[in-house]
Amino acid sequence: MSETVSNATSMDRLLRPRSVAIVGASPTPGSFGASILANLENARYAGQLYLINPKRAEIGGRPCVASVDELPYGVDCAVLAIPRVAVMETVLACARRKVGGVIIFSAGFAEAGEEGRLEQQRLGEIAREHDMVIEGPNCLGIANYVDGVPLTFVVTPMTAFGDKPGVGIVSQSGAMAAVLGVALRHHDLQISYSVSTGNEAASGVEEFVEYLIADEHTSVIAMIVEQFRKPKKFLALVAQANAAGKRVVLLHPGSSGAARASAATHTGAIAGDYNLMRTKVAHAGVVMVETLEELVDVTDILSRCKTLPNGGAAVFTESGAFKALTLDLCERLALPLPALTDATADALRRELPDFIPPTNPLDITAQGLIDPDLYRRCIPPVLADEQYGSLVLAIILSDEATSGLKFPPILAALREIRPTKPVIFAGLDEGAKLSPDYIAELRELGIPFFPTTDRAFRALAHVTAHAMAPRTSGSGALGAAMTLPVGVIPDFRSKQILAEIGIPVPPGELATTADEAQAIAARIGYPVVLKAQAAALTHKSDVGGVALKLQDAEAVATAWDKMQADIAHALPELTLDGILVETMGQWATELIVGAHSDPEWGAVLLIGLGGVLAEALGDTRLIVPELGRDAVVAELYKLKGAALLKGFRGTPELDVEAAADIVVRLGQFVLANPAVREVDINPVIVYAKGKGAVALDALIVTG
Question: Under CATH, which architecture does the 589-702 domain have?
Answer without folding.
Answer: 2-Layer Sandwich (3.30)
